[in-house]
Amino acid sequence: AAAGPGGRGGRAPAVVALRLALLLGAALRSARATVYFQEQFLDGASWQKRWMNSEHKPDLGKFKLAAGKFYGDAVRDKGLQTSENSKFYAISSRFKPFSNKGKTLVIQYTVKHEQKIDCGGGYVKIFSSNLDQKNLSGDSHYYIMFGPDICGSETKKVHVILNYKNKPHPIKKPIRCKVDGYTHLYTLIIRPDQTYEVKIDNEMVASGNLEDDLDFLPPRKINDPTVRKPTDWDDRIQIDDPNDIKPEDWDEPEYIVDTSAEQPEDWDDAVNGEWHYPMVKNPLYRGEWKPRQIDNPNYRGVWPHPQIDNPNYSPDFSIYSYENISIIGLDIWQVRAGTIFDNFLITDDEVYAEDFGDETWGETKGPEKEMNIKQTEEEQERERVTEEKYFEQRFKKKLERKKESGNDRAVRNTVKKEEL
């Protein structure tokens, strides 16, 4: 065989074969997967034909297509970016209606809070086909709400809220979101066996059973109402020490009369009433006496209340499924704008979603971080140069003032000598 590039015989055909195999594998995965919605904003301004801004309020914030201040790829990293501070945002995109009954549902997208967001949403909502997109608002009925929400130091969580019988049910598990300012991949997987999984950057951060982790149904078991805790069951961990006796001099009033006070000379009983000695805090007051606590020798632990099957419980094996899923939307509030949403995907294939995440976010996350680090270093260098110039100018002005002051002293000394 002829030598390939760099003189390595047979290497080029092998590389080509490997690439073809990878492409074939991707094609097969794509053939197996059903992609209901996919949006990467790769066709410039054409995104405005696919996404509809809500007209619910006249002062809603505007989205723009941007990659941000730092990115891994100037084209591939472009997404919907919030552009106005302290605004509500509402925008949505429609696709062919489908039902996830009997199928896995995967909702995935990327979020970048490059503005180091202090308070604002980064989540998406999934709606049915009957949503009035021009009237999208926080009151609009949704099927699923998923994604990060940040506000202050306390709220830094990932929402997972599923609608069941026209009532939203939030997940009971706390899931912390990313807050470092870089692009992150968020994935929600809902399976027909009523299990779910939440992934951040293609790594599982939470999983479980929908019925167990969201309060859709009454509990399967309840406490037996016919059984009462035995009267002799002692569940007190600690008790008063019977040998600890209150000191005789303990009881002192909290306030006492200040007999050292004197009636003001201008005190008028007719106007101010009869004068009395004022009350002051008693320095001997020690508060309410309580005996010290000791371990209860008769402690038997928490009484295990016998349980029975809940007569009000009825299993529902369709909690996970929705009909006429047809719209994905962003309905959020942001104090400081700048968040970028990109790489939206709704599919029935977990593997396809993971590969799609690796081929989008996975390929640009490294260069994005490198650009940000470089920009930070350049900014720090500019600040250092500016600071040096500032102190240099201050030093020059100080020398000039010192020189002028020295000249003034020389003149004054000359005048004094002439006067003398």
Automatic annotation (TrEMBL):
| Chain intervals for the UniProt region annotation (Disordered) | 225-250, 358-387, 401-420
Q: Name one GO molecular function term.
A: unfolded protein binding
**What PROSITE patterns has UniProt attached to this entry?**
CALRETICULIN_1, CALRETICULIN_2
InterPro entries associated with the record: Calret/calnex, Calret/calnex_CS, Calreticulin, Calreticulin/calnexin_P_dom_sf, ConA-like_dom_sf
What are the GO BP annotations of this UniProt entry?
ERAD pathway; protein folding
**Pfam families from the UniProt entry:** Calreticulin
Chief subcellular location equals other
State the UniProt keywords alphabetically.
Calcium, Chaperone, Disulfide bond, Endoplasmic reticulum, Lectin, Metal-binding, Repeat, Signal, Zinc
Compartment(s) where it occurs, according to its Swiss-Prot or TrEMBL record: Cell surface; Cytoplasmic vesicle, Secretory vesicle, Cortical granule; Endoplasmic reticulum lumen; Sarcoplasmic reticulum lumen
Quote the cellular component terms of the Gene Ontology held in the record: cell surface; cortical granule; endoplasmic reticulum membrane; sarcoplasmic reticulum lumen
- Chain positions recorded as an alpha-D-glucoside binding sites: Y123, K125, Y142, D149, D331
S-S bridge residues? C119-C151
Signal peptide start-end: 1-33
Q: Where is the composition biased (Basic and acidic residues)?
A: 225-248, 365-387
Describe the family membership recorded for this protein in Swiss-Prot or TrEMBL.
Belongs to the calreticulin family.
Identify this protein by name.
Calreticulin
Q: Which organism is it from?
A: Eudyptes filholi (Southern rockhopper penguin)
Task: List the gene name.
Answer: CALR
